[in-house]
Each structure stands twice: as structure tokens, then as C-alpha cells.
Amino acid sequence: MSAPTEKKTIFLDIDNTLYSTNSGVSRHMGQKIHDYFLTLGLGEEEASELHHKYYTQYGLALRGLILHHNIDPVDFDKKCDGALPLEDLISPNPGLRKLLQDIDRTKATVWALTNAYRPHAERVLRILNIDDQIDGGLIFCDYQKPNFACKPDAQYYHDALAKAQVTDLSKCYFVDDSRINVDAARALGWGHVAHFCEAGLVHVEGGKVKEIGSRQVNGQDGVDVIADLEELRQIWPEVFIS
Ligand SMILES: [Mg+2]
Question: Domain spans of the chain?
């Protein structure tokens, strides 16, 4: 086994962080999951209620479906994330690619981290044309494992640190569009956490349409709030090529 890393480690959330909520991916995702609930024989309203309840209670609707409806998570993944028309919704973003290329890899390793399963994560990174920029690897929810952890479970973050061999939390960087996920990392002592917040835009969370809240919380509890990933250059200058 190799020695724990001396370098800084950057964890990038994927969905609605590496592409904008404006893409409509969250809306399509919400619809696919809703349709999946309908296949269980639920009515429209009951499906919406349960979808939101499981999302809120378990961090992922899927975990409620496994616990209470004994569904096959791999089948769910195929019919939900795997059925998204991602190629029509997102495309390579040269600015994002340049941002990642400007991270100094002698100082930092970049990981992508998601609550989705591996195929979805790999597909998004490939479409965005940044898969080669993720030199650390992928942290994903292993749908094949019973009781897999997801953000914001502490276990998920512990597993991510173990996989990336991070022992010094002051060298740990994280950006995510979910405030809950960011706060969880911060509460566990992760050194540099940023909330990517596209305030005013509408996204779908747990099947419900919500407006993304304001940026008034900037700096609170050690969390940086950014509206554009380019702002990472300002808040984390030490990881970029100078
Ligand atoms: Mg996200």
C-alpha cells in the first residue's frame, strides 16, 4: 500500500456542479425517478409524496426504494440515470476544462465525487470532456453494495478520504451544489469547502421544483459560496498554477 498523500486533494461534486442547473438535467432526473415510482403501482400524488419523503429522509430516493420496496438498484440506475438524454442536455465546456487544466497537479490531485452510480458519473465526465482531468479517480455510490452510504452520511465522507488516502483534513478541498452536503463536510473538519450556488435558478430536488436560495450565507461557518466555478481561482489560489 502506498503512503498517504502529501498533496492537496480536491473533491468535485459532479451533477449540477460541473454543469449548470440550467441544463435541465435535474428536471429530467426527477421525472425519470417519478416514472419509476409509478411502475410500483403508486398513483401520481402518492409517488410524488414518497419520492420527496425518501429523498429527504435518506439523501437519495433510491435508498427508500431499496429499503421499503425491495427494488433492484442496478435496474433503477438503468431506467433513471441511464435513460437520461444527457447528450442533448450538456456539452463540453472549454472554460471548465481550462479551469481544471490550470490546477497544479504537482500540488493537488482532483477527484470527482457523486451520489450517483459509476456509469452515470463516467458518462457525464466524458460528455463534458473532462474525464482526463480527474487524475485521482471517482467516488460514487456503489449500488451493488447493500446499505451503501451516500452524501450527507458521515460514512460517505470517511470512505472518500480513505479512498483518496487523505489523512490531513487541512489539505482537503470540496465543492458541491448542495448546501447540506457542504455543511456535512465542514462539520467533519474538511479544510476548504465551497458551496456552488446558482441563486435564483430553479432545480428539481427529491422530485419537487425549488428555487435555489440566495447567497447571503457566504463565509458562514467556514463555507465559501460561489456562483461560478471560476471563483475557485480566488478562494483556492494555492492549488492553481501561478
Ligand atoms: Mg450535485
Answer: 8-21+88-239, 25-86
Tell me how far the alpha carbon of residue 184 lies from the centroid of ligand 1, in angstroms: 14
Q: How far does the centroid of ligand 1 lie from the alpha carbon of residue 115, in Å?
A: 8
- The dihedral region occupied by 178, where left means phi > 0, alpha psi between -120 and 50, and beta the remainder, is beta
Contact between residue 149 and residue 60 where contact means Cβ atoms under 8 Å apart: no
Please choose, from the candidates 139, 133, 127, 129, the residue with its C-alpha nearest in 3D space to the C-alpha of residue 13: 139
Q: ∠ CA(45), CA(211), CA(12), 5° rounding?
A: 105
Q: Within 10 A of 53 (CB to CB), how many other CB atoms are there?
A: 14
User: Ligand 1 centre and the CA of 99: distance in Å?
Assistant: 18
Query: How far, in Å, from the CA of 232 to the mean position of ligand 1?
Result: 17
pTM (2 decimals)? 0.93
What CATH code would you report for 8-21+88-239? 3.40.50.1000
Dist. CA 93 → ligand 1 center (Å)? 17
Out of 3.50.50.60, 2.30.110.10, 1.10.150.450, 1.10.3470.10, the CATH code matching 25-86 is 1.10.150.450
C-alpha cell at 217: 450565507
Instruction: Kindly tell me if the per-residue pLDDT of 4 is higher than 90.
Output: no
Q: Check residue 217 and give its pLDDT.
A: 58
